[in-house]
Automatic annotation (TrEMBL):
<dbReference type="Pfam" id="PF13148">
    <property type="entry name" value="DUF3987"/>
</dbReference>
<dbReference type="InterPro" id="IPR025048">
    <property type="entry name" value="DUF3987"/>
</dbReference>
<protein>
    <recommendedName>
        <fullName>DUF3987 domain-containing protein</fullName>
    </recommendedName>
</protein>
Length: 182
């Protein structure tokens, strides 16, 4: 039986983390040279592994594609929705990576000169639904603490559990919410 995570020593965790960091993306196949060089420069500046920037970059690009769809066959299309989660111990500079992409998207959106909120970083399932509606179904959800996001998404303003929404959010299928006021 494996040990609970809280009982694993820092040394064991560090060795496991080093193994994870040793996994290399084949950057020449994943990104064009210019983007690969940018990631390499930024990772050195921030002192983070390549993956801390590569995956959020892909997710940010998918956001920039808006509600585009990939046509896989004549009758089969999929939305360009990518999810990424950067996981690491406290103090490994994950927040700086989230902020980097948040700032880039904010600069792009500022140049678009609209007043919409394109980045969702906290709130309830109703707030996410409103933000998706206001942005034609395209939102970058850039949350610094994943557990906080799950807690917020798990309950609506009435405290009811919303776990069934995850499958709809994952696939990009349409969904609605009926609320009762009174």
């Amino acid at each position: 039986m494996s040990k609970p995570l809280k009982e694993i020593s820092d040394d064991v965790y560090r060795r496991a983390l080093e193994k994870c960091w040793a996994v290399k993306l084949d950057t020449q196949k994943t990104f064009p040279t210019l983007i690969d060089e940018w990631i390499t420069v930024e990772k050195k500046k921030l002192g983070v592994p390549y993956s801390y920037l590569a995956y959020p970059l892909l997710t940010s690009i998918s956001y920039c594609l808006g509600v585009s769809r990939v046509k896989l066959a004549e009758s089969y299309q999929e939305p360009v929705i990518l999810y990424s989660l950067v996981s690491g111990r406290s103090g490994t500079n994950k927040s700086s990576c989230v902020s980097l992409f948040r700032n880039i998207i904010n600069k792009i959106e500022t140049n678009e000169r609209d007043d919409k909120q394109h980045i969702f970083d906290s709130g309830t399932i109703e707030g996410l639904m409103t933000t998706l509606h206001e942005n034609n179904g395209s939102v970058l959800c850039a949350v610094d603490e994943f557990s906080t996001f799950l807690d917020a998404m798990d309950k609506n303003s009435n405290g009811n559990v919303e776990r069934s929404r995850y499958l709809s959010l994952w696939s990009g299928s349409s969904w609605s919410k009926k609320t009762k006021h009174g």
